[in-house]
Write a structure and sequence with these properties.
The complex is a heterodimer of chains A (284) and B (417). Chain A is mostly helical and 284 residues long. In chain A, 76% of the residues lie in helices and 0% in strands. In chain B, helix 12 packs across helix 14. Classes of the chains: A mainly alpha (284), B mainly alpha (417).
Chain lengths: 284, 417
Amino acid sequence: MALPKYTEPHYRIWHYIYLTICAAVFFFLIAPLFVIFPLSFNAEEFLVFSDGMKSLDPDAFSLRWYKDMIYGTKNPWGLATKNSFIIAIFATIGSVILGTVAALGLSSRHMPYKGLIMAVLISPMIVPLIISGVAIFFFMAKAGLAATHLGIILAHIILGTPFVVITVTATLSGFDHSVTRAAASLGSNPVNTFMKITLPLILPGVISGGLFAFVTSFDEVVVVLFLAGLENTTIPIQMWTGLREQLSPTILAVATCLIILSTLILVTAELLRRRSERLRGINQ
Amino acid sequence: MSSETKQILTTDGIPLEVSLKKAERRNKIKAFLLVAPLLLFIIITYVLPIGDMLMRSVDDKMVTQMLPKTFKAMEKWDGKELPEEEVFAAFHSDFIKLVEEKREGKLSTQLNYTKNGFKSIIKKLRRKSKSFEDGNYKEQIMAVHKRWANVEYWQAIKRRAPAYTGQKYLKGMDMFKNESGEIVSVPEDRRIHRVLWLRTLEIAFFVTVFCFLMAYPIAHLLATLPMKYSNLLMICVLLPFWTSLLVRTASWMILLQQQGLVNDFFVGIGLVADDNRPEMMFNKTGSYVAMTQILLPFMVLPLYSVMKTISPSLMRAGKSLGGTPFVAFWKVYFPLTIPGIGAGCLLVFILAIGYYITPALVGGASGTLISNQIAFHMKSTLDWSFASAMGLMLLTGVLAIYWVYNKLVGIDNIKLG
């Protein structure tokens, strides 16, 4: 953002103050994440930068906490990782199917009581998580699903569907319905039309909704804390217990892996967003 | 208008109007059937359980069902003087039944909530009641302990007669119903919940303000920079947004600890002495700092999406019409960003007001919020009806904020990134 040559000095100063403020805020946002990387390679057990690390002594760095994460005795991370992925994958599939189908209905101009139904469907996103946790726990306890994978998956479907509904409805709002009518007039049945015409066109929206649902489930801890038994422990639960009891460098190793995972998800989400923007550009 | 003009018929000979209406109805049903699975799922697993919370929070059937005859007999009692023999006899018969089922312990716990001192006299009554003779129960019960002859204890029992009670809600506001049925506050030094409600509001409010002050300049920068730079900077906003909440909280725990980098920095620039490092974690400061950083993307994204749509020529027009840059900003740019400000503040405030994980980890005793209290009653004291009541009070607050927001700005203006 170059300033025009005629800018008066005091505006010039103000402009640099503004840029400094922005830099400080960006630093505040992103810097905390980068503390985790070096400390997860710490050779010592303490969560502070040792003198060796400050002088970049190679002996001060090691992979021992990563080894501990993978091979450590009695370590819960293996089971937690497996559970987290199983739960998140099934919750995502469930959310995407239920959410996409519902979004199709909601985008129809024939849909009665649209506002009210939409409010009910996205309510799990609006209501504070702790309240959702209590309510879902009461239901699962009554249904005998507390401390089961199925119970947690269902809970995460509840929390994940609003994202799918919102993203897919948004994608469908720019959708040209004449293509489905064209398909129908050419003799295609509705299911076939959906699979061959509608779905490929709204796929970016569906996938980005799915990503939201996946991350929501993968990162969710409040509801799982109420629902999970020992067998259903997940990565967030283990991190929560670890952070509450003692902050060990193994947690930082796990955190580093999670940051890498979220970077991958971020890149995917961004690529999808650009693709859908491009597609919408073509439609115009 | 049908009889004069000739009705248009479809090929089947049905009037077009009827046929269209039929098609319309079919489309309506089709659309509804698509939504139905999710709607049913959410209603059964989510909306009804919230209703269940409401039932639990006011449910007081336990004592009502334990002492059915007593409460029946008490209907005629005016509650001023000691009740008649009839009430004592009914109470005795209820009590014998409870002892047989070994449930008198639960009764004493429940009655003790209403008035202290029931525990010991119920234990004593259980022992003595074995040698009771038939008839004249009033004399016999009153002889067990002098409190049984005190009208206040009988009034306390009568207060538990209704099957529903708002007592848990009163407790959530640090109030209770006293002997004469008036609603009064608990003594000053025992008002824990009011402090928590106020602190929750205070922290949510200031976190929203901090987020707004920090997000506005960077959202503006992101919206005005050329695409290739702003995409790079956008990652600084999106990476924390997609990163696990626990990871971000963990990084603050490392930074804010007494030997942490923030304290190192303060010592380094000579702000504090090395042997006098301030506590920045396990108190309000920890909650403020961590929550502001974690919720900041939720403020930046709506602001950015609104600012992106504001044409830069508007500011130029403002300036060319004689406004200084500040006037042009304040009179032209700022009002246009209000929908984004509204959406961002609503989002951050509502997320902050129900925050649980971060305050529990970095907030210590003085930085915890109402959510932590709800979780505490769910998991530790197992007073689920109280947890439900406080949850619903919080929910009512959140819905009220949405309602006000909808009136002022309109809920449709919310954008997700």
